[in-house]
Amino acid sequence: MSKRVASSPHDVTRRSFLKAGTAHVAAWSLLGTMTRAHGRPPVGYGGLRSERYLGPARVLTRVDDREVFVEGPAVDRSGNVFFTNIPVSKILMWDPRQEALSVFREQSHEANGLLFDPEGRLLACEGASARVTRTDMQTGEVEVLADGYEGKRLARPNDLSLDDAGHIYFTSRSEVEDPEGENPKGVYRIDSDGSVTRILEPDRVHMPNGIVTSPDSQTLYVIDAHPDADHHRDIRAYDLGADGTVSNDRVVIDFYPGRSGDGMCIDAEGNLYVAAGLHAARGTSETLDTRPGIHVISPDGTLLAYRETPEDTVTNCTFGGDDLRTLYVACGTLLLSIRTEIPGKPGYRPRA
Q1: In terms of CB atoms within 10 Å, which of 49, 145, 281, 282 comes out highest?
Q2: In a domain, 98, yes or no
């Protein structure tokens, strides 16, 4: 872990957020009218008491590189925040005590979502190599957990989660509908014996992205985030069996026609913290109805709180800190932190 990167932590002020928000008021109003034409009401932001859940957003560091698109934050047992810069195939590490950014791994095969398991090993979804890996943080040894299914390579693994039984769940997605020589997009499970099972087929999820299990491991949540018109842009919940099977598909919240969620994490009470929305259109059918930032959503689909993030594209978040009440957010070229009133799900901190 060498190659230090300069950083300058500072607070994102309320004034800067209000200035950015004012620029979008007219667009949000117009797009609300467009949403009604789709027959689906937009996500409502009125009457929120966001301060009951979220503090202000603080910029910890900005990533400088030839290309930057940060993703996949995960916190190790020492409190260090690992996250990815996908287009240049790097895994970065933020040390909150030293307020310093360094490169943990180069040539990460376009790693995206990251997660530490209870033994402190780093799980990674490697998009370019189409595999899920596990790194022993003591020895540096990298183990391939999954790189194919039924004789074909995976589509790009995107994000992953664990349940209390040790099953690993990951999303896999492709930019084309029928990729030659690889499996279609879907959701997969890795069992303790190394076997891989597809638990959600492409007809059930259009573009799977973020994934998380509930605190009691009885519910699996999956973000569906297809940018094309008339496709899923929602969060879906499934009853999760002790054997890792899923049933009872239902929609928790629908972001259509705005940008859906990307990544998410979950607190100790089962509320979802979802990175969703855009500041500006990006050439897809996604509108600006979904505001850019962190959305706190109850298990029944109620939007409880919202905190705007300062630049596109907000991608993912995770809990950390000594009390699991610091939310780390990957956003465009930035790593942010937001203090929360409710701690993250027990088990996000690896056992010592």
Answers
A1: 145
A2: yes
